[in-house]
Design goal:
This protein is α/β, with parallel strands linked by helices and about 400 residues long. About 35% of the residues lie in helices and about 25% in strands. It contains 14 helices and 20 strands. It has an eight-stranded mixed sheet, with helices on both faces. The protein has a four-stranded antiparallel sheet with strand order 13-18-20-19, sandwiched between helices. A four-stranded antiparallel sheet has the order 15-16-14-17, covered by helices on one side. Strand 15 and strand 16 form a beta hairpin. Bound molecules: adenosine-5'-diphosphate, aspartic acid and magnesium ion (MG). The site of aspartic acid has 13 residues, from helix 7. Its EC number is 2.7.2.4. InterPro entries: AceGlu_kinase-like_sf (IPR036393), ACT-like_dom_sf (IPR045865), ACT_Aspartokinase (IPR054352), ACT_dom (IPR002912), AKii-LysC-BS (IPR041740), Asp/Glu/Uridylate_kinase (IPR001048), Asp_kin_monofn (IPR005260), Asp_kinase (IPR001341). GO terms for molecular function: aspartate kinase activity; ATP binding.
């Protein structure tokens, strides 16, 4: 008998019919003799709807109150799913994050899980109940409701699996696994049987929203066997694994990730003195703005240009901070661009192959796509390009690295 944590995402619980289907699925696992903990998201669109309501009151809602509100989405689906299970004769009980006591820090809207009390859950499982837990939410030490950041139900699922030492954490969603890139953008994308934690972590942090980054971090840290599957289609899905050897047989590049959420800022004509990078980025980090890519040009005329990217939501605040800095340090000008996108190729195979970056640049050059910034790590190469070329770039790279699915007959 296995203990399995199953997480169902927003589209999988997006209507009463779907919730009934999920209940049927859980019932089958239960009848197989497995112990099941289910984590659910809010119905698709609900979290956005709730945020929209808050924004009608204030452009920047108070984070604590925002969390009180957005956490309600998941409270509805846990109760509906528990009802659907009980209707089928499956004993079930639903809990909010607070009721379980999923203890987090107090960073509202992006809280981190610190500890999970597994007592209640274990007692319910022992009594033969399916436990249905609200994803995306927790409680801080003062009893405030917190949420874990968008897509956070994945993390709830993995964290519960870690706390309960579950045999597997299954992430059920609207695709049948992790693909070489977002199948909505590249129809020829292929499902991967396996991907390493390291690669999945890069893919997630570079924009592939199929799994929340934190959930992959957690799974890697606590060695939780993690699988992404389709909610309503049979199939093996994708296993996230530590097993690098087998993945090495795959192509050099495992996947392509992209991100439209960044913006670029450049400060020009900066006097080239020691400490200048700190003078520019110190105030940005003091304003709690995270910086992603950074490029500093070689100095000429004793001045240099300095470019970096931030999340698009932080663009205006970063611009205000940078304009202040420019005045203080006597830089020539500050310019910015929000019409950018970042495209990244990811693969552990890169470690043992030379020329991967140049192959990437060649593919982009062939399409006439200009590269504005580049950054590399051991297993990824990222470029910033004009946003309007994003889809073209992803498709071109997918083909160049031989990731396209073979054409089916008649195509
Ligand atoms: P859920 O609501 O179930 O959490 P998400 O929308 O968060 O679902 O994640 C699933 C979506 O992730 C897919 O519909 C797909 O468009 C997108 N996606 C992005 N990159 C990938 C990828 N490499 N493989 C699979 N899906 C991806
Ligand atoms: N409902 C939350 C969101 O939309 C959490 C999740 O779906 O994972 O971000
Ligand atoms: Mg998700």
């Amino acid at each position: 008998m296995a203990l399995i944590v199953q997480k169902f995402g927003g589209t999988s619980v997006g209507s009463i019919e779907r919730i009934e289907q999920v209940a049927e699925k859980v019932q089958k696992f239960r009848e197989n003799g497995d112990d099941i903990v289910v984590v659910v998201s809010a119905m698709s669109g609900e979290t956005n709807r709730l945020i929209g309501l808050a924004k009608q009151i204030s452009e920047q809602p108070v984070p604590r109150e925002l969390d009180v509100m957005v956490s309600t989405g998941e409270q509805v689906t846990i109760a509906l799913l528990a009802m659907a299970l009980i209707k089928r004769g499956v004993p079930a009980v639903s809990y909010t994050g607070n009721q379980v006591r999923i203890l987090t820090d107090s960073s509202f809207t992006k809280a981190r899980i610190l500890q999970i009390d597994d007592q209640k859950l274990r007692a319910d499982l022992k009594a033969g109940r399916v436990v249905v837990v609200a994803g995306f939410q927790g409680v801080d030490e003062h009893g405030n409701i917190t949420t874990l950041g968008r897509g956070g139900s994945d993390t709830t699922g993995v964290a519960l699996a870690a706390a309960l030492k579950a045999d597997e954490c299954q992430i059920y969603t609207d695709v049948d696994g992790v693909y070489t890139t977002d199948p909505r953008v590249v129809p020829k994308a292929q499902r991967l049987d396996k991907i390493t934690f390291e690669e999945m972590l890069e893919m997630a942090s570079l924009g592939s929203k199929v799994l929340q980054i934190r959930s992959v971090e957690f799974a890697g840290k606590y060695n939780v066997p993690l699988r992404v599957l389709h909610s309503f289609q049979e199939g093996p899905g994708t296993l996230i694994t530590t097993d690098e050897e087998e993945s090495m047989e795959q192509p050099i590049i495992s996947g392509i990730a992209f991100n439209r959420d960044e913006a670029k800022l450049t400060i020009r004509g900066v006097p080239d003195n020691p400490g200048v990078a700190f003078k520019i980025l110190g105030p940005i980090s003091a304003a709690n703005i995270e910086v992603d890519m950074i490029v500093q040009n070689i100095a000429h005329d004793n001045t240099t240009d300095f470019t970096f990217t931030v999340h698009r939501n932080d663009y205006l605040s970063a611009m205000r901070v940078l304009e202040n800095t420019a005045r203080e340090i006597g830089a020539r000008e500050v310019i910015g661009d929000t019409d950018i996108a970042k495209v990244s190729i990811v693969g552990v195979g890169m470690r043992s192959h030379a020329g991967v970056a140049s192959r990437m640049f060649e593919a982009l050059a062939k399409e006439g796509i200009n590269i504005q910034m580049i950054s590399t790590s051991e297993i990824k190469v990222s470029v910033v390009i004009e946003e309007k070329y994003l889809e073209l770039a992803v498709r071109a790279l997918h083909t160049a690295f031989e990731l396209d699915a073979p054409a089916r007959q008649g195509e």
